[in-house]
From TrEMBL:
<dbReference type="GO" id="GO:0051539">
    <property type="term" value="F:4 iron, 4 sulfur cluster binding"/>
</dbReference>
<dbReference type="InterPro" id="IPR013785">
    <property type="entry name" value="Aldolase_TIM"/>
</dbReference>
<dbReference type="InterPro" id="IPR058240">
    <property type="entry name" value="rSAM_sf"/>
</dbReference>
<dbReference type="InterPro" id="IPR007197">
    <property type="entry name" value="rSAM"/>
</dbReference>
<dbReference type="InterPro" id="IPR034457">
    <property type="entry name" value="Organic_radical-activating"/>
</dbReference>
<dbReference type="GO" id="GO:0016829">
    <property type="term" value="F:lyase activity"/>
</dbReference>
<keyword id="KW-0479">Metal-binding</keyword>
<keyword id="KW-0408">Iron</keyword>
<dbReference type="InterPro" id="IPR012840">
    <property type="entry name" value="NrdG2"/>
</dbReference>
<dbReference type="GO" id="GO:0046872">
    <property type="term" value="F:metal ion binding"/>
</dbReference>
<keyword id="KW-0004">4Fe-4S</keyword>
<dbReference type="Pfam" id="PF04055">
    <property type="entry name" value="Radical_SAM"/>
</dbReference>
<keyword id="KW-0670">Pyruvate</keyword>
<keyword id="KW-0411">Iron-sulfur</keyword>
<keyword id="KW-0456">Lyase</keyword>
<feature type="domain" description="Radical SAM core">
    <location>
        <begin position="11"/>
        <end position="229"/>
    </location>
</feature>
<protein>
    <submittedName>
        <fullName>Pyruvate formate lyase activating enzyme</fullName>
    </submittedName>
</protein>
Amino acid sequence: MAGLQKTSVIDFPDQISAVVFTQGCNFYCPYCHNSQLIPLKLPSGKELMPESYFFGFLEQRQNLLDGVTITGGEPLLQSDLKDFLFKIKNDYNLLIKLDTNGSSSSKLQKLMEADLIDYLAVDLKFSWPNYKQLAPAGLISEIKRSVELIINSDVDYEFRTTVVPGLHDIEEIEKIAIQIKGAEKYFIQNFRPVNTLDPGLTNRRSFAPSKLEQFRLTAEKHLNNVQIRD
């Protein structure tokens, strides 16, 4: 564990959750706002939070929480994730939300088949041809399989795209919407120039509300439920 937010009312829809941050990501998004979580190994002198601390925290707060949000980094990179989620479910009877980039469809499928995920939030960065800007090419087929798996599952989920000026436009949003046709929920999230992996993006403005609305209307040509998170 790389960090813990003890209480959140916005990360897990309709639930009060604790938020667990995992270390390491296989993407290198220039606009990432958790850029300190990208390296798989922490810098010298820094240590991960012991799981014992987290479960001790749950003992104290169990009756005040509805669930736990697992985010990162990319949680599916954690070799012990399934055991970690099982303990949260089995020992504390809490709901679990998983944030993922969808780059490991087999791991994701195993977690879903084990009934360990109550809500999935999947980050879709770009249309498939543009993923090469921030991820190894071999991961794209994995993400496609994850999207298909999720759309055809019974798990509550959302797809979401963080839109960044200079990287996303109306044409790109339409391509993304087409590639997830049939999805239940799609969120368009505005970029925030804070703690970005690329320091140059800290000077870039977010999209205006009028442009976000154009994005939403464009995506709605192909999807039934499109919402904005500004």
